[in-house]
Design brief:
The chain is α/β, with parallel strands linked by helices. The protein has 21 helices and 20 strands.
């Protein structure tokens, strides 16, 4: 028998406040009007909620990663249009998704994609009932493009707007395809950024059965394809699947991940390492495209692809078998398991999971491949589902400035940071930067009571974080001094201009971490913020010149982090606090253990999953400090428990701002 504590509650939506990106879409339950509402009450509530939710027509917009998509869907399930613009060429050029380049690509095509979706549906904006748009999780820079477009349309035509969770949309699109699919059901959502097993009890009510603890299966497919020199224009999954048909799946004995763990979580980081070592042992040169490889070389690559795919999918099978057992004990009426997300378009994945599901007496439902990958249809349909329940927001102002899009209703709104300068060798704010600022906002009350005299940022980049911290404290009259360091002289220059544009004074120093400041600042820093180079890379990239130094973290992404920790311990005052961004691959529990040995307690302030990674912002403070988190076990053994405690019930997100 399993214990209820085995399951964590899922809050799909990362807290908003992406950098000038997401609106905090307030969930309001509006009663259906019994009499006509004045035109001023936004488009007669979209024609009195489409005559009491009869015929709804919703435009869905999706820009969470590298596909720009839009679709128009009718509430009877009719797909009126379905348009997707791919960034395949960029994927090849950069070997994956480059957030800033992806944002620019979205911006260039978003108007055309949306207009094409309307034209193909033979509709204009005036024919719509509402606009639905993905608001997370995803790449903040990319999400912003879709949100801004949706809000412009909704504001200009007085339409309700519906914020959609990306992973929920992947799960619910199956209800568009299979009319008999009713709650409760099990869903496996597999993509480049996510592995998620959930029990869907009702609309907006989901219990997380398992998730990835490091890399998702789609990421493993993509990396394998890249290392094998495959054509990335179709993305890594289809390329590996096709090549695997030529190979012997038993030729290489890769081990199945997490065999000793009797839960439903996933891990693909170790399998990736096994694949990389196999490729190195066979001396495969990824710079030689598969199309130019010799017959022998091609066969070696095919064997690796087939062996990898066999183990990757076996891992899925094992976890799904256990999840079905758990879910049926909670909800014996379950009849279906939904498999969706980009990886669900893989025929081998479908075939193997179909056998698993049938063995348990259930039926497998997979959306067609074009609705498994990111698309506007799933967003529009999920919008329809929530609109029927009265879960939508009123239209934004018709003339809403773009820099007002990132309002945050539950936390004090961070000042809108204007990046007045940039440089190709300077890291621009991205999801990790936004997460760090959101963590500071989440801890704002404690920070103001803390009244730090000296604040320091190590690795200031564009100046976004140190400027946000200064403005947050300054709004309440807290007088602090600020120091920021960076090894990149271009970063220091950009930070200087960012600070100047916002009227913030800070001492900027070009140095490696805090070299040369050890004596001067010893025991004086009250608040330190660090977004370190945490990406696992070859060691020879650590400390490289230019922008590479902002992300190259060496083995496990820990090389620079492990140098920063003792420096932080030396510089922090007796009441000093450290806020640090970490990646799952960095082994945050081990980082907490190291700091515990130095006398620091710790807690996670923000945990956020994106299409690319799972981020944690951890706060450290000396154990004798009076600031203690009463809700969490601060021991090392309690770290994982605390992490799970950060993931509350999904329904609380849906209803957190409801009027009902």
């Amino acid at each position: 028998m399993f214990a209820a504590s085995t399951f964590s509650r899922l809050n799909f939506l990362p807290k908003p406040s992406f950098f000038t990106a997401l609106s905090n879409f307030r969930r309001i339950h509006l009663p259906l009007p019994s009499s006509p509402i004045p035109r001023s009450s936004y488009n007669t509530l979209s024609t009195a909620a489409a005559n009491c939710h009869g015929d709804l027509i919703v435009l869905g917009i999706e820009t969470s990663c590298d596909d720009t998509a839009a679709a128009v869907v009718r509430s009877n399930g009719e797909i009126l249009s379905h348009v997707v613009s791919s960034q395949a060429d960029l994927l090849v050029k950069y070997g994956g998704v480059a957030p800033k380049m992806a944002e620019e690509a979205h911006s260039q095509v978003i108007d055309r994609v949306v207009q094409e979706a309307l034209d193909k549906a033979y509709m204009t904006e005036k024919d719509l009932t509402a606009v639905a748009v993905t608001i997370g999780p995803g790449l903040g820079l990319c999400l912003r493009v879709g949100v801004q477009k949706a809000r412009r349309i909704a504001g200009s035509f007085s339409l309700p707007i519906i914020g959609i969770h990306h992973m929920e949309a992947h799960a619910l699109v199956a209800r568009l395809i299979e009319k008999d699919l009713q709650f409760p059901f099990i869903a496996l959502l597999v993509s480049g950024g996510h592995n998620l097993l959930v029990l869907a009890r009702d609309l907006g009510q989901y219990i997380q059965l398992g998730t990835t603890i490091d890399d998702a299966i789609g990421e493993a497919y993509d990396k394998t394809a890249k290392w094998l020199g495959l054509d990335m224009r179709r993305s890594g999954g289809p390329a590996v699947e096709e090549l695997a048909l030529e190979g012997n799946a038993e030729s290489i004995s890769f081990s199945i991940p997490m065999k000793q763990h009797k839960d439903c979580n996933f891990s693909y980081a170790g399998l990736k390492t096994q694949v990389r070592l196999a490729i190195e042992s066979k001396k495969i040169d990824a710079t030689i495209p598969i199309s130019c490889a010799s017959n022998e070389d091609r066969l070696s690559r095919a064997d690796i692809a087939a062996s990898f795919q066999r183990i990757a999918v076996l891992h899925l099978e094992e976890r799904c078998e256990r999840a079905i057992q758990w879910a049926l004990k909670m909800e014996p009426s379950i009849r279906y398991m939904v498999v969706s997300g980009g990886v669900a378009s893989n025929k081998h994945v479908r075939a193997r999971l179909d056998k698993v599901v049938k063995k348990s007496g259930l039926q497998l439902i997979c959306p067609p491949p074009q609705l498994c990958t990111d698309n506007g249809v799933m967003v529009a349909w999920t919008g329809i589902e929530h609109f029927r329940m009265g879960r939508y927001d009123p239209p934004p102002p018709a003339e809403e400035p773009e820099d007002m899009v990132a309002s945050h209703m539950q936390l004090p709104r961070t000042a809108q940071i204007r990046l007045v300068s940039s440089h190709e060798e300077v890291y621009e704010p991205c999801d990790d930067s936004f997460a760090l600022v959101d963590a500071l906002l989440a801890d704002r009350t404690n920070l103001l009571e803390h009244r730090p005299k000296l604040c320091m940022e190590i690795g200031c980049g564009s100046g976004y974080v140190i400027t946000s911290l200064a403005l947050t404290l300054g709004q309440e009259g807290c007088v602090s001094n600020y120091i920021a360091t960076d090894i990149n002289p271009y970063a220091v220059k950009v930070t200087s201009e960012t600070l100047k544009a916002h009227g913030v004074d800070a001492e900027l120093i070009i140095t490696d971490i805090a070299s040369g400041l050890e004596k001067r600042l010893a025991g004086l820093v009250d608040v330190m913020v660090v977004n370190p180079p945490y990406v696992p890379t070859p060691e020879d990239e650590v400390g490289a010149e230019g922008i590479t130094s902002s992300w190259a973290g060496g083995e496990n992404g820990r090389s620079v982090i492990d140098r920063i920790l003792p420096v932080a311990d030396h510089l922090l005052s007796e009441k000093g606090w450290l806020y640090m961004v970490t990646l799952t691959a960095n082994n945050p529990s081990e980082i907490c253990r190291q700091m515990r040995n130095k006398g620091y307690a710790s807690k996670i302030v923000i945990q956020r999953s994106t299409e690319e990674e799972s981020l944690h912002v951890i706060k450290f403070w000396r154990e004798f400090d009076t600031e203690v988190d009463d809700t969490a076990d601060q021991s090392v053994s309690g770290f994982v428990s605390y992490l799970l405690a950060q993931v509350p019930l999904f329904s609380s997100w849906r209803g957190s701002n409801n009027n009902n």
